Structure prediction request, 176 residues.
Amino acid sequence: MPGENQGVADQAGAANRCEALLQHTLEAVRPALTWQHGVPTAGEVMLAHGTTDGSARWYVSRNRNILTVVSPARRGALLGVVERHWRRSGHIISSVNADHEMPGLYATTVDGYRLGLDFGTAGNAYVTATSPPVARTERISHPPGTPGIARYPGGHADLAPLPSAFCPFWSDRDGG
Prediction:
């Protein structure tokens, strides 16, 4: 797969790998979804009790807010498309949330990245990629226009909007 982990050792490399995983996932969905970058996160990983490594480990998480309205009748179809893509990519499906209103799908890549597709309370959907523990990087780049990141020093952060882009297929209320 493009962006395959080639010994990613730090947060900067992990952020790039997360971005590639998300892009690859969204490229598999047809008709294409409208999306925007979500608020990125990064932080320290809590090591398991008894770990003797002594060095702190860090993670990076990236996501995509899906701006296309995905009707309740089409949520299962989107989950199915993504599940088949993840399986074909060699990812292991780790769990499925079968909740009727807020379903979700979760997978793990062979190199330890965690993927998720979730639906929120307002019908919003988002795809997330989280890295395994990596070394800390002083500065992690973010794609331009990333919500939660000020566009310029001293500026206000952008917030993610609710889905508002209609698609004849994904927004179809009847599912067919």
In short: The longest strand covers residues 57-66. The chain is about 20% helix and 25% strand. The CA atoms of residues 40 and 62 lie 5 Å apart.
